[in-house]
Amino acid sequence: MPISTLDDTLLHEVALTLFPNIGPQLTRQLMSYGGSARNVLHLPPGKLRKIPGVGPATVAILTGAERTAALKQAEDSLRKAEKEGMQLLFYTSKQFPARLKQLPDAPVLLYYQGTANLNHPKTVALVGTRQATDYGREQTEKLVQGIASHQPLIISGLAYGIDIAAHRAALQEGLETVGVMATGLDKLYPPAHRKTAEKMLTQGGLLTEFPFGTPPDKYNFPARNRIIAGLADGTVVVEAARKGGALITADLAQGYDRDVLAVPGPLGSAVSEGCHELIKANKAALYSEPKDVEQLLNWDAALHLAGKFKGPTTYDAADFSPEEFQVITVLQAATNREEHLDALAWKAQLPVHTAASLLLALEFRAVVKALPGKRFALL
Fold this sequence. Notes:
Layout: H1 8-16, H2 24-34, H3 37-40, H4 45-48, H5 56-63, H6 65-84, E1 87-90, H7 98-101, E2 109-114, E3 123-127, H8 134-147, E4 153-156, H9 162-172, E5 177-180, H10 194-200, E6 204-208, H11 220-231, E7 234-237, H12 245-255, E8 259-262, H13 273-280, E9 285-286, H14 290-296, H15 299-308, H16 322-333, E10 338-340, H17 341-348, H18 352-364, E11 368-371, E12 375-378
Parallel strand pairs: 3-4, 3-7, 4-5, 5-6, 7-8, 8-9
Antiparallel strand pairs: 1-2, 2-6, 10-12, 11-12
Helix pairs in contact: 1-6, 8-9, 8-14, 11-12, 16-17, 17-18
């Protein structure tokens, strides 16, 4: 495929993520000043130095041989993605998960292969120990079966134990499930889960922030966990020891103001001690049955409203003005699909009076409804 057929905008966006020592926050800073990745990569040194946070070392790599290398690597990645049916989603893309966009430590580029909508209206993460017991696997299966009527997107990390049990239970129930990987899309880990992962490509998908060729480095797994926590409206810890990745995910979810539940286990079980500690410290709600997830995430109310109101549950950008659709996007990403007016205006980057006017218009169209305390929710 000749270079002229590549998406030039995406080529430069991908390249911008491949420079050493330029992380997500600095990438966003560069984009806000440059306007586009292409502009950033063609700014002269004098203008780059005027951008806050950009020092001599950053200027040197953006204007030196590293720029050529990054563009070449980006070109190779785009070619590989097209060949393998994968998508590269920059944070400015409409397909990029809106739930992640609002997080300060979110990645700016995602590598994705699959069929699931990453902006699914209902998402829940199921995580736990790699040393899952029969009890843990049974609780995972019962939980997924119990919430299947809501058709949620099930998110986990494709790891041994609870993670793979969650993915398999979702597939069994006909639900979409996304595995967030700590490697490149072309380095499936663990290899033992390849057959399940292949099923997920047509009933969910695989997602990672790591470029092609990235091996399963131990430092990648905690980073991966923040994406799991950020993608989900709620996280359920099924089994966890006192230390481990599941507790990291729970802490991250709580820090993102997302709901966390923990499944209690038998007294004396080492793989339930982490769950018990989360509950005792009020870091997680007690899970005893699937209805607990429904109530905490307000899914039971959503089912009631679906029968009472006729507003759509999915929205096409073509049916709304850009500002209206931005408001809808913020509400879709919010916990329980509702938000306070001030927070909504800030996240949508709109003046409060403009957001209020847009919400009123959307209320007349039966897209949103007003709640007490200047809160608004999607119908």
